Amino acid sequence: MRRPVALRLSAAGATMALAAATGVLVAMPEASAATSGATGYATQNGGTTGGAGGQTVRATTGTAIHQALCGRASSSTPITIQVEGTINHGNTEKVSGGSCNTAAGVIELKQISNVTIVGVGGGAVFDQVGIHVRESSNIIIQNVTVKNVKKSGSPTSNGGDAIGMEKDVRNVWVDHTTLEASGGESEGFDGLFDMKNNTQYVTLSYSVLRNSGRGGLVGSSESDLSNTFITYHHNLYENIDSRAPLLRGGVAHIYNNHYVGLSKSGINSRAGARAKVDNNYFEDSKDVLGTFYTDAAGYWQVSGNVFDNVTWSSPGTDNKPAGPNPQSNTSVSVPYSYTLDGANCVPSVVRSTAGAGKGLKVSDGSCSPQTPDPTDPTPDPTDPNPPGGTNLSIGAGSDGSSKASGTSYGDVRDGDMGTYWSPSGSTGSISVKWSAATSVSKINIREAAGSVGAIGSWKVSNADTGAVLTSGSGAGVITFPKTSLRKITFEITSSTGTPKVAEYETYAG
After folding, report:
1. Smallest Cα–Cα separation from 190: which of 227, 220, 224, 167?
2. Has 3 been annotated as catalytic?
3. Mapped to the 3 state alphabet, what secondary structure does 125-142 carry?
4. What is the DSSP letter of 250?
5. Which of 11, 211, 313, 376 shows its CA 20 to 30 Å from the CA of 30?
6. What is the 3-state secondary structure (H, E, C) of 260-274?
7. Is the CB of residue 311 less than 8 Å from the CB of residue 334?
8. How far apart are alpha carbons 49 and 115 in whole angstroms?
9. Predicted model pTM
10. 260/210 Cα distance (integer angstroms)
11. SS3 of residue 302 by DSSP
């Protein structure tokens, strides 16, 4: 049985001094999204930057969060929503608009992209209201508490998941959050952090998951195997029955986490899943790694872990614990850089850094918590100096030279790094255009995953006059004298491999 642990969370009592007893959103000066940058698999596939470069607003109700999403120019217009206070069923209503798809009683990040939700001030507590990410990409959720979300009883929200992702989700970074329940399925709760139906490139970092029957899963069934590339690091799993996490297929990197009081099982790798399990500290727990409750085997690569008072059950047909002496049975390589804390210091460094309200402290890789520079913006992994202001390509038109099969001109201005335009050969041109003259001084050419570095030489032209504004080589930010024009063309004149332009962003300054 799961040991009872008293919850000691309290909702933030005071709300912000906004125009706001009703919780309406308030526009703030343009600001960076969240401090520090994404880590793990969320840095891949074009990276995860959330609302960086867009407008920043504050909200004290769930309805105001929905208003912020629905008030954007499009469903991909970048936005950072700073949240303070308690979000609950009483203040979370459906809001309609062309740039959103929301519902009452749940925070809906559905069919959208380029959004950051970050807790500020006295804290943000989502009380019995879950956060649902569906058919969305480039999302950051940071410094918030989500608690007591139910799938049965009253009130219900988000299928009982604190944070749930499903159906074609890409690039989500969840960081410094506290996710907790008050029991298991019999008490009406489900998972704290679930991914289903083609969710990929997700990182959960510096978070606390506790007091729940189920920590979280990757894949809803043995046939839901499209979910992959998940990183879990510097998290605390405390007083959890099982699913810490449950992996069905796919690849996961699990490092520097502290597990305490897992009563039934921990990392459950099954149905062909492969887990890289590095430098974790498992304490006072049972069956912390293996394949459980199925005969569909999973795999793991283990290194540097500490097993402190861990018990192991006997193997059986549907029960294959990795212990008592866990050994690797696969090999997993990861495409990003990372620094491991020694497992022996994981309990102390996680205790100092994980969860909401910890000042976004992180480890420096030598067991020493560090406070990030609050002025440090969330970087675009493909561009160390991304341009500021509004991406003028969102809502514009586009055309170009012959395109490769399956690609579209519109894919370069949809805010989605998962789609792209590619020429039919090794060279070609793509243009962004407007119905009226528009001033442009910078463009940002962002290459699609798997083709970074393919673009060689290029030139940028004013398509109205044919004048060449600048030329050079390699993708990234391109600057030229501010020019008023109705159409601007980026022409690739040489490449290695097949060039793929995921986003052709344009900026006034």
Report:
1. 220
2. no
3. EEECCCEEEECCEEEEEE
4. S
5. 11
6. EEECCCCEEEECCCE
7. no
8. 8
9. 0.70
10. 9
11. strand
The span from the CA of 473 to the CA of 457, in Å, is 4
* Choice among 58, 134, 170, 243 that is catalytic: 243
Torsion sign, CA atoms 305, 309, 310, 314: positive
C-beta neighbour count of 373 within 10 angstroms: 9
Q: Residue 4, Cβ neighbours under 10 Å: how many?
A: 10
- Cα(150)–Cα(344) distance, integer angstroms: 36
Helices (H) and strands (E) in the chain, counts: 2, 35
Note the Cα 457 to chain centre separation in Å: 33
| Angle, vertex CA 380, rays to CA 201 and CA 400, nearest 5 | 90
CA-to-CA dists, residue 152 to 23, 130, 179, 265, 286, angstroms: 28, 13, 18, 24, 28
